[in-house]
Amino acid sequence: MSIDHTLVDTGDTPNTDRPEVKIKLDRTPNAIWIMPEGYGDSSSADGHGSPVGIEYYNGHLRLIVYKDINEQDPEIIDLEDARESNRSDDE
Questions:
Q1: What is the pLDDT along the chain (91 residues), one digit of tens a residue?
Q2: Short-list 85, 86, 43, CA closest to 64
Q3: Order of strands, edge to edge, in the sheet holding 75-78?
Q4: How far is 43 from 45, CA to CA, in rounded Å?
Q5: What is the largest CA-CA distance in the chain?
Q6: What secondary structure, in 3-state letters, does the chain show?
Q7: Which of 16, 64, 69, 82 has CA 20 to 30 A from 58's CA?
Q8: 23 Cβ contact partners less than 8 Å away, ≥ 6 residues apart
Q9: Residues 53, 32 contacting (CB under 8 angstroms)
Q10: Under 8 Å CB-to-CB from 50, ≥6 apart: which residues?
Q11: Model pTM?
């Protein structure tokens, strides 16, 4: 199942040529893939790629980022250290 959404540029100097980006969220049992229009990954056809995903894999929540469409391997960020139960008492 997928969800459509539009992100609006709210920066200090918004891009007037492209003030918004259409996003499609694609859900699978173990992941959510973010598919911004005009962006993709190295192994998908144009219009079908997802450069960002979040998945639950081997008991770990992971962020997967294809930050360069010409690179085949994604950057994988393990989010286990971001668990709220890991918060230190020091402020």
A1: 789 999 998 888 877 787 899 999 999 999 999 999 999 999 999 999 999 999 999 999 999 999 999 999 999 999 999 999 999 987 6
A2: 43
A3: 2-8, 20-27, 31-36, 52-57, 60-65, 75-78
A4: 7
A5: 48
A6: CEEEEEEECCCCCCCCCCCEEEEEEEECCCEEEEEECCCCCCCCCCCCCCCEEEEEECCEEEEEECCCCCCCCCEEEECHHHCHHHCCCCC
A7: 69
A8: 4, 5, 6, 7, 34, 35, 36, 37
A9: yes
A10: 26, 33, 34, 35, 40, 41, 44, 66
A11: 0.82
For residue 14 the two structure tokens come to 């918004």
Whole-angstrom distance between the N-terminal and C-terminal Cα of the chain? 41
Residue listed under structure tokens 């893939």: 33
- Distance between alpha carbon 37 and the CA centroid of its chain, in Å? 13
Whose structure tokens read 């250290």? 81
